[in-house]
Specification:
The complex is a heterodimer of chains A (331) and B (214). With 331 residues, chain A is of the alpha/beta class. Chain A contains eight helices and 14 strands. Chain A has two domains: 183 residues, Dihydroxyacetone kinase, domain 1 (Rossmann fold); 128 residues, 2-Layer Sandwich (Hypothetical Protein Tm841, Chain: A,domain 3). In chain A, strand 11, helix 7 and strand 12 form a beta-alpha-beta unit. The two termini of chain A are 36 Å apart. Chain B is an all-alpha fold and 214 residues long. In chain B, strands 1-2 form a two-stranded antiparallel ribbon. The radius of gyration of chain B is 16 Å and the shape is globular. The chains are: A alpha/beta (331), B mainly alpha (214).
């Protein structure tokens, strides 16, 4: 394992220390070492935005703490849900009295821990609601969308909801924008090489040289098929063909495109992939309102790419276009 | 031979458990690696090691030791196993708090209450390839031992045997819940990691309680 770490069991503790020191203009520590917050949170008069999840997805989740984005994050072990206590403390850290929106992915541990945290927060009189992202198309059939995982589409949800909260939206308005964003968002991932949880020391799944796993999850969950490695053009075609019919995205729809690397793929290749995606969407008459290309939601040092499309209307465009300042997203 | 032990001696049961989890750290991670992400042993050991430190030099009864274990898993571990085992041990602690002596019917109450707690937290069913597939037959065996008025040792042995059979039965199941469920048919043929740790926990607790009841 070629890694820059100290004790493999304490990578999360160690990274958090460095992260706080490196970004003290944006994030600050809290009494709970597994909760980070925006320096200005709780922002008076604003609905609090909370998320959380396992570590290893940099810049998600802590990298989206910031202005017009997320107020506090519960931090878990690598690829493992934060505790209910961490979610509860994150809710407290974000609460200015106007309510808190918990916006997270659809994983068994997160679902249980968020549910317990929300009960405790409600007992304290905090108004709290949630939206669960489920944008990963290959993770379940369309008729059981509620089982799908949340992946990079969570960023679109945080961006829109964070903006709505900063515009003065009520908790119900923020929740409604978050739900609308995720309902109009679809993603798919392609894995080219596996990743290793430092404490485990070896990859927990394999992708043979010359092969790719189409539909892979953010923790290496198997996809729909293992195929021969193809060109960027063919990968983009396959990815677009997978997600377009699912919503469906139609000619003249306006979309935001997010192409993210999974950690170890050179950023240069993400642009090669994006070029193909842009061409395909243009050919189909789908209009790109805005695009993001880079390492936005990774899986340690997995090789591969994810593509996320969000169909936007005037409200979502206004939210996604709003300025933001965080480690992972500045615009 | 006695058929019970006082709750004041129960700390040892929890301390022995922390040792067993440490010993099985690699084994649990290996089993988890087949269809999960391979960190079950690591996360369990991280929690149980914290508990070992918190129990060291303390003079706690059974209920308080179980409560310390449950609270630590719940507040410091996370994942799915943090809340599930947190609930499991806190439920056991609640039962132990109401008694002064642990006999086989108390063991049954503890395990049954732990199972109810887990099933309240998650909509898991028997046969979903989870810890419940170990726990449910163990609870059934204890219930029958109570009805048949078996001795403490016989009851515990029946519990461990049934837990073992339940654990092994997960090998041929297809995961229906949690991360492994994403694999569908590909999850068949390997043991479930949560069912494995549940067996190790019940076996260790059973053996420690038998020693205390000698």
């Amino acid at each position: 394992m070629q890694r820059i770490i100290n004790d493999p069991d304490y990578v999360v503790e160690d990274y958090l220390k460095g992260f706080i020191k490196a970004h003290k203009d944006i994030v600050s520590a809290t009494d709970n070492p597994r909760v980070l917050k925006y320096v200005e949170a709780p922002v008076p008069g604003k609905v609090g935005i909370v998320t959380g999840g396992g570590s290893g997805h940099k810049p998600a989740f802590t990298g989206y703490i910031g202005k017009n984005l997320i107020d506090s994050v519960a931090v878990g072990e690598v690829f493992s849900s934060p505790t209910a206590k961490a979610f509860y403390d994150a809710i407290k850290a974000a609460d200015s009295g106007k309510g808190v929106a918990v916006l997270y992915g659809n994983y068994a541990g997160d679902n249980m821990n968020v549910a317990m945290a929300m009960e405790d927060a409600e007992d304290d009189g905090i108004l709290v609601k949630k939206v669960v992202a489920n944008d990963d198309v290959p993770s379940a059939p369309k008729d059981s969308r509620e089982k799908r995982r949340g992946v990079a589409g969570e960023i679109m949800m945080w961006k829109a909801a964070g903006a709505k909260a900063s515009m003065g939206g009520s908790l119900d308005e923020v929740i409604s924008v978050a739900q609308k964003t995720i309902d109009n968002t679809r993603s798919v991932g392609i894995g080219l090489a596996p990743c290793t949880i430092p404490a485990v020391g070896k990859p927990n799944f394999l992708i043979e040289a010359g092969k790719m796993e189409f539909g892979i999850g953010h923790h290496g969950e198997p996809g729909i098929s293992v195929e021969d490695l193809s060109t960027a053009r063919e990968m983009a075609e396959k990815a677009v063909d997978c997600i377009l019919p699912d919503l469906p995205f139609m000619p003249n729809d306006e979309v935001v495109v997010l192409v993210s690397g999974l950690g170890a793929t050179p950023v240069m290749e993400l642009y090669i992939f994006y070029n193909e995606v842009e061409r395909l969407l243009t050919e189909k008459g789908i209009r790109i309102h805005r695009q993001y290309v880079g390492n936005y939601f990774t899986s340690l040092e997995m090789m591969g790419v994810t593509i996320t499309l969000t169909k936007v209307d005037a409200e979502l465009k206004e939210c996604i276009d709003m300025d933001a300042y965080s480690v992972g997203l500045k615009q | 031979m006695k058929n019970s032990f006082p709750t004041s001696k129960g700390l040892k049961v929890v301390q022995d458990l922390t040792v067993v989890i440490k010993e099985n750290r690699e084994y649990l991670s290996e089993i988890d690696g087949a269809i999960g992400d391979g960190d079950h042993g690591i996360n369990m050991d991280k929690g149980f090691s914290l508990v070992a430190k918190r129990l060291a030099g303390q003079d706690m009864d059974f209920s308080d030791a179980l409560r310390t274990l449950g609270t630590t898993l719940l507040e410091d571990i996370g994942g799915s196993m943090g809340p599930l085992y947190g609930m499991f041990f806190k439920q056991m602690s609640r039962v132990a708090k109401k008694v002064e002596v642990v006999d086989i019917s108390v063991v049954y109450e503890m395990c049954n209450s732990a199972m109810e707690g887990v099933m309240r937290l998650s909509d898991v069913k028997i046969g979903d390839k989870t810890m419940i597939d170990t726990l449910y037959p163990a609870v059934q065996a204890l219930s029958e031992a109570v009805k048949a008025e078996k001795s403490f040792n016989e009851g515990i042995d029946a519990m461990i045997d049934s837990a073992y059979a339940g654990w092994q039965s997960t090998k041929e199941m297809v995961a229906k819940i949690g991360r492994a469920s994403r694999l569908g048919e590909r999850s068949r043929g390997v043991l479930d990691a949560g069912a494995t740790s549940c067996y190790l926990i019940l076996k260790s607790m059973g053996e420690s309680m038998k020693e205390l009841a000698q």
